[in-house]
């Protein structure tokens, strides 16, 4: 019976380290009730596998380490997932760009309908997921024998490391046969990943976000980023700010960008369109600064300042420095 | 070279949807419907490739019940050459089933590229393009923000979590669009008139031999936990006091 089989969790990592969203997805995977094995797939990814092995409740780590898996291209990684899935009752991954690309391939090749963006595990076959930009929550029963799930990690607390020095065993798995064949038809050309000393958006405790009103990339650097750094925060942006080229694409928060739930979210010059709210309305405390007192963002903000962000933000930075002194 | 563009009819992105009080779904009666915004971007990209002389025909396909042809007409008014309507009794066909239907359409039409939106803004699933690519055994590039089409391959820049990534795919291939790929055109009045004469070929799921039975049973639909508006504060100093009290600084 499928539901007596263990769960396979696919880790988000960059080979060198495990992304914090993985520990959150682990919490969802454990809620299915079966033992959890974690797959770390990449090239030179042993360090990430070792970090995965330390997490509480991981029974075994599978390490698929091969040049074919560099950059985790969807075709070879999905082929591996399908080959491994035979022994598992559920295949689970965090809703990151990598796994959003890979998981539906695995689901289709297994002839399973995927449940995307799970926000609650109600039972091993019943899940809650947001639809319409989070304006409704659908409860679904997945009737396929195997489950294929992506997890909205902002909705789950992170699992910590196991107590003591215990680590789960790490087992090397061979590349699945079709990996090379598939990889030949899609290949990596290059990437442009900005290195940043700031926390990652999906892991940050505090996020400072700027909207169209910020006006330029220079103003993001001169006004938004110093406030973020004073708070040790990540920087986010609205779609309008990204479209205008004020902020890079990976800063976009919202329905079709990143979904975040930090302790503190500060929205500066963001109107609060439903697509933006979809990505941040589960934050613990929301602050909004907007010139327009009717702006919809104030309907979800715990604390609002009606004013010009170019006056409020420097003052806020000064007050925070005072408070931290 | 032919490009196939699947398009979906969804509730317009400006509509604030309401959950039915009995939890049976969302209110869809008398609500403005539009083409899924990501699909508009897909149509636009296909048209630009055609206008650049790199494609010869753009075919729009949609799957859905009565009025789905309006969405296909929108694609035709933007400039697509012809349409295919896989007519179903109900809306809300699951992505896996949609991918299976599209696979049959692809097999019949033989396009070199299929360009889809990365997600539909109603079910927010983000699955169909990847599923279609897997079922066809074609390479995929999701979340495209730049597409450079050559004779034997396509180079696609993608929006990923840390920034941008560029892949090269052999043809034929499946692409899904992200927001910054292009800005879709509005259909001009003459083009809307012209679109009325363009052919839409109707097919049934039975013609294509695909079973529509859903795999996910929808148990209920509910309102998300609400948030209530908080307070307005007068100054940065006052705000910092509140944040300290809330324990978030
Ligand atoms: C398919 C689709 C997907 C989308 N996905 C997303 C998404 O993921 N994320 C997202 O954010 N959006 C998304 N959007 C876009 C969304 O609908 C809004 O257009 C966008 O969020 C608006 O960004 P904004 O609030 O920065 O700009 P605006 O709506 O233009 O708001 C600017 C605000 O700044 C205020 N302001 C102006 N000057 C000042 C000043 N000096 N000081 C203080 N305040 C000032 C104004 O009062 C206004 O409220 C999507 C849209 C579509 C169609």
What does this structure look like?
The complex is a heterodimer of chains A (325) and B (249). Chain A has two domains: 2-180, HUPs (Rossmann fold), CATH 3.40.50.620; 201-324, TPP-binding domain (Rossmann fold, 3-Layer(aba) Sandwich). Chain A is of the alpha/beta class. A seven-stranded parallel sheet of chain A has the order 5-9-4-1-2-3-10, sandwiched between helices. Chain A is globular and about 60 Å long. Chain A contains nine helices and 16 strands. With 249 residues, chain B is α/β, with parallel strands linked by helices. Chain B has one domain (2-245): Rossmann fold. Chain B has seven helices and 13 strands. In chain B, a hairpin with a 2-residue loop joins strand 8 (153-160) and strand 9. In chain B, helix 2 (68-78) crosses helix 5 (189-195) and helix 3 (95-109) packs across helix 4. The model of chain B has no long low-confidence stretch (mean pLDDT 97). Classes of the chains: A alpha/beta (325), B alpha/beta (249). Chains A and B meet through helix 3, helix 4, strand 5, strand 7 and strand 8 of A and helix 3, helix 4, strand 7, strand 8 and strand 9 of B. Strand 8 (136-142) of chain A pairs antiparallel with strand 12 (216-222) of chain B, so a sheet runs across the interface. Chain B: Heterodimer of an alpha and a beta subunit. Chain B: Its cofactor is AMP. Chain B: This is Electron transfer flavoprotein subunit beta. Chain B: It comes from Starkeya nomas. Chain B: Keywords: Electron transport, Transport.
């Amino acid at each position: 019976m499928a539901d007596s089989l263990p769960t396979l969790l696919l880790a988000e990592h960059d080979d060198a380290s495990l992304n914090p969203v993985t520990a959150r997805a682990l919490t969802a995977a454990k809620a299915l009730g079966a033992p959890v094995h974690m797959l770390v797939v990449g090239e030179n990814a042993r360090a990430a596998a070792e970090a995965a092995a330390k997490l509480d409740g991981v029974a075994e780590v599978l390490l698929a380490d091969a040049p074919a898996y560099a950059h985790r291209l969807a075709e070879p990684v999905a082929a591996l997932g399908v080959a491994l899935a035979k022994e598992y009752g559920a295949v689970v991954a965090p809703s990151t760009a990598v796994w959003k690309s890979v998981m539906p391939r695995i689901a289709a090749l297994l002839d399973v309908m995927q449940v995307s963006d799970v926000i609650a595990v109600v039972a091993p076959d019943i899940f809650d997921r947001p639809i319409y930009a989070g304006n409704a929550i659908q409860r679904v029963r997945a009737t396929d024998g195997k489950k294929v799930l992506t997890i909205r990690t902002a909705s789950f607390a992170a699992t910590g490391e196991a107590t003591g020095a215990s680590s789960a065993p790490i087992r090397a798995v061979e590349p699945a046969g079709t990996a090379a064949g598939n990889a030949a038809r899609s290949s990596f050309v290059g990437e442009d990943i900005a290195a940043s000393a700031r926390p990652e958006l999906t892991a940050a405790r505090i996020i400072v976000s700027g909207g169209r009103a910020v006006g330029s990339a220079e103003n993001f650097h001169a006004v938004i980023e110093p406030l973020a750094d004073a708070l040790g925060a990540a920087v986010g942006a609205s779609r309008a700010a990204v479209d205008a080229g004020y902020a890079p694409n990976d800063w976009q928060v919202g329905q079709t960008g990143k979904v975040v739930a930090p302790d503190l979210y500060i929205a500066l010059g963001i109107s609060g369109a439903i697509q933006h709210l979809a990505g941040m309305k589960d934050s613990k405390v929301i602050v909004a600064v907007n010139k327009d007192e009717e702006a919809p963002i104030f309907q979800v903000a715990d604390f609002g300042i009606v004013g010009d962000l170019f006056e409020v933000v420097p003052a806020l930075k000064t007050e925070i420095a005072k408070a931290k002194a | 070279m032919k490009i196939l563009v699947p398009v979906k009819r969804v509730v317009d992105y400006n509509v604030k949807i309401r959950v039915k009080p009995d939890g049976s779904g969302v209110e869809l009666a008398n609500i403005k419907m539009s083409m899924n915004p990501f699909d508009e971007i897909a149509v636009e990209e296909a048209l630009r490739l055609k206008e650049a002389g790199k494609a010869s025909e753009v075919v729009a396909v949609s799957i859905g019940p009565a009025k789905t042809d309006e969405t296909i007409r929108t694609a035709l008014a933007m400039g697509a050459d012809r349409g295919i309507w896989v007519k179903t009794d109900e809306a809300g066909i699951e992505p896996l089933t949609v991918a299976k239907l599209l696979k049959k359409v692809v097999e019949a039409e033989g396009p070199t590229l299929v360009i889809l939106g990365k997600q539909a803004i109603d079910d927010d699933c983000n699955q169909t393009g990847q599923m279609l690519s897997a079922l066809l055994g074609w390479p995929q590039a999701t979340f495209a923000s730049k597409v450079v089409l050559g004779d034997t391959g396509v180079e696609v820049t993608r929006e990923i979590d840390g920034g941008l990534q560029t892949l090269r795919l052999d043809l034929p291939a499946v692409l899904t669009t992200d927001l910054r790929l292009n800005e879709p055109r509005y259909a001009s009045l003459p083009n809307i008139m012209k679109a009325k004469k363009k052919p839409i070929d109707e097919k049934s799921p039975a013609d294509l031999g695909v079973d529509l039975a859903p795999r996910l049973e929808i148990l209920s639909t509910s309102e998300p936990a609400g948030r209530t508006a908080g307070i307005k504060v007068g100054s940065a100093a006052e705000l910092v006091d509140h944040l300290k009290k809330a324990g978030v600084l």
